[in-house]
Design goal:
Strand order of the largest sheet: 1-2-3-4-5-6-7-8
Distance between the termini: 28 Å
CATH topology of the largest domain: TIM Barrel
Largest sheet: 8 strands, parallel, barrel
Order of helices and strands: EHEHEHEHEHHEHHEHEHHEEH
Oligomer: single chain
Strand content: 15-25%
CATH class of the largest domain: Alpha Beta
Structural class: alpha/beta
Length: 293
C-alpha cells in the first residue's frame, strides 16, 4: 500500500500580495494553502508579496494546514530570491511552476539546500505544459523529495490550443500521463482549478471526475468551493465502514490460510484489503487534521 502523506482534498491558491487573504487563510477549512508569488502577483508587487508571505509563515497560526509557497520560475529575476527566502521559513513545501525537466527539479533542490532549507521541506511540481506532460515520468523519478504534482490545466489548455469543456476531454491524456507518473513513484497529485465560480454544479461534477480518475484532491481559487471539494474527496462514512469490514474479513481469512474470502457476495483479495486500509488511514488523517485546525 502506497503511503499517504497527508490529506490534500482542498488546496486553495491565495495571492501573496494580499495581507488580508493571508490572514483569512488561518481560519479556512482547506487542507492546504498555496501562497502564491507567481501568477497572482503583479511584477511591481513581487518583492512586497515575498516579504508578506515570509512574515505570515513565520508568524504561524495556520494549524495543521499544509503551507505551500509557489515561487516564481528560476529563470525569472525573482525566482532565486524567492527560494532563498522561503527556505528559511517553516513552509511545508516549495511549488515550482512550469516544470518540464528533471534538471529543473534538481536545480531547485540545490538552491533550497544552499539556502538552508530543512530536509522536511518538500518540492511540488506544477505540471502545466505539453513538454511537462511528455516528461512526467522523468520528473517524478528525479527526486524522492517531490511530494506532489499540481496540475495547471489553465496554462495547459492554452498551450494545447484546446478548449475548456465540461468533460475536459482535451486534457484527459495529459491528466492520465501525470497520474501514471505520480502513482508509479508514490507522489500525491491534485487536480487543476475550475475557473467558472458561478457554476456550482459544474464544479461538483469536476471534483467527482477528478476523484474517479484518481486525484487526491483539487486546487481551488475561491474559499466557497472548499467544503464541496472536502466532501467529494474524502471517504464517506459508508465507505469507511465497508473498508473496516473488508479488512476484518480478509485478516480472518488470512489467519485461516485463505488468500481470498467472499463478503456480501463480493470476492475479497489482498488488493481490496490494501485499498480498504488506505481509505481507513486517509479518513483517520482527515479527522485528526480537522480536530487540530
Amino acid at each position: 500500500m502506497a503511503a499517504i502523506q497527508r490529506p490534500r482534498r482542498s488546496v486553495l491558491y491565495m495571492p501573496g500580495s494580499n495581507a488580508r487573504a493571508l490572514e483569512k487563510g488561518r481560519t479556512l477549512v482547506a487542507d492546504a494553502l498555496i501562497l502564491d508569488l507567481e501568477d497572482a502577483v503583479s511584477k511591481s508587487n513581487k518583492v512586497e508579496a515575498r516579504n508578506l508571505i515570509v512574515e505570515a509563515v513565520n508568524q504561524g497560526g495556520y494549524g495543521n494546514r499544509e503551507i505551500i509557497v509557489r515561487v516564481n520560475g528560476l529563470d525569472t529575476v525573482w525566482g532565486v530570491d524567492d527560494v532563498e527566502a522561503i527556505a528559511k521559513t517553516s513552509a511545508n513545501a516549495v511549488l515550482l511552476p512550469k516544470v518540464e525537466t528533471a534538471e529543473q527539479v534538481q536545480n531547485l533542490i540545490d538552491l533550497m539546500d544552499q539556502a538552508g532549507a530543512p530536509a522536511t521541506m518538500s518540492v511540488m511540481c506544477m505540471m502545466e505544459t505539453p513538454l511537462g506532460m511528455l516528461n512526467a515520468k522523468e520528473i517524478a523519478a528525479s527526486s524522492n523529495r517531490i511530494s506532489c504534482f499540481v496540475m495547471g490545466t489553465s496554462d495547459l489548455v492554452k498551450d494545447l490550443h484546446a478548449s475548456h469543456t465540461k468533460l475536459r476531454l482535451p486534457v484527459i491524456t495529459s491528466l492520465g500521463l501525470c497520474l501514471l507518473a505520480a502513482r508509479a513513484y508514490d507522489i500525491a497529485i491534485v487536480d487543476g482549478v475550475c475557473l467558472d465560480l458561478s457554476d456550482d454544479e459544474g464544479f461538483e461534477k469536476s471534483c467527482v471526475q477528478g476523484r474517479e480518475l484518481g486525484f487526491d484532491g483539487k486546487t481551488l481559487i475561491h474559499p466557497k468551493t472548499i467544503l464541496t471539494a472536502n466532501k467529494i474527496f474524502e471517504p464517506s462514512s459508508l465507505a469507511v465502514e465497508k473498508a473496516h469490514s473488508i479488512v476484518q474479513a480478509f485478516e480472518e481469512a488470512d489467519r485461516q490460510g485463505q488468500g481470498v474470502v467472499v463478503l456480501n457476495g463480493q470476492l475479497i483479495e489482498n488488493l481490496h484489503a490494501e485499498e480498504a486500509r488506505r481509505l481507513i488511514a486517509l479518513s483517520e488523517m482527515i479527522t485528526d487534521l480537522e480536530q487540530n485546525n
